[in-house]
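Exercise 4. Each item below gives a protein and its sequence. For each, produce the structure-token representation.

Item: Polyisoprenyl-teichoic acid--peptidoglycan teichoic acid transferase TagV (bioreactor metagenome).
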Amino acid sequence: MSHKKVKKRRRARHRVITALVVILFAIAALAGVYYCFFSKPTVPVTDTKTPSSGQTQTTDEESVSGRKEDFYTVLLCGTDDGNGGTDTIMLMGVDVKNGDINVVSVPRDTLVDVSWNTKKINSTYNNGGIDKLESELEETLGIPVDYYVKVDLKGFVKLVDKIGGVYFDVPINMDYDDPTQDLHIHVNKGYQKLDGDTAIGVVRFRHNNDGTGYGTEDVGRIETQHAFLAAVAEQTLKVSNLSKIGSFAQIFSDYVDSDLSVGNMIWFGKQAVNMGSDNIHFSTLPGDPNGKYMGRYYYILDPAETVTMVNETINPYKADLTVDDTHIIGS
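Answer:
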């Protein structure tokens, strides 16, 4: 199957985390309209590699000269998976000049080259925090991460409850218990109204107690997260909820951490609103969800397809990356 066909199929399936893009940025934009407080972010200057050159650049001028104009990469992640890791990991490419936003999901079981035994991308957070997660994504995919937005998933519980619940079509019966995390998910398939606690169970669900479920745990869960968070965004931004902007802002303040300033957030929100939802595109890094490496199961990226997707979506460089610019193992 061609990459374009795969990409089209995934786009149809993945109504990605519009809540993080729309709720965080659009609400910020609404606040910005009120306070008239906008601040365009700069591209952080760090040592980088020009694609395919392998040569480290160190001067300010050199490190940004090879980049596209007004193109930013932002790591979006949700924390509190019960094990100190990250349940949701995405990289967002904001192409202001061309009016596009691309959000690429990174399955949490993605294999990465780390020193500890469980070599999953989501383990990097509890072995080094956001800095380690950023550096492993940069090393694996060959692109810089300019900024991050980290959301405590408890904030979504508060948000869902604040808007009075979310109507959502739960895709499968969910029956799972993990006493060690005090996690109990018991939700029937079908269209229903979810409160915050039930909703967080739905987006965290991977498989039932008897092992049944999505079939491809991580990929299936990502699809449900995308669909649910799109529903949250749609229902949050109803006119009837505009009076709750102050409460939303408080939830944002309590549960969101970022190295973007408030002014930067508002600026990004303004761009997202101007671009419109039709120009926000979603995908998941291509790979094998049942790959095996050193006796353990991982989501193993397909090097060629991954590079193609990165170039089409989140590569901030003018030159295309090659497989040699990445560090994808296990394939």
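Check: Residues 85 and 127 are 9 Å apart (CA to CA).
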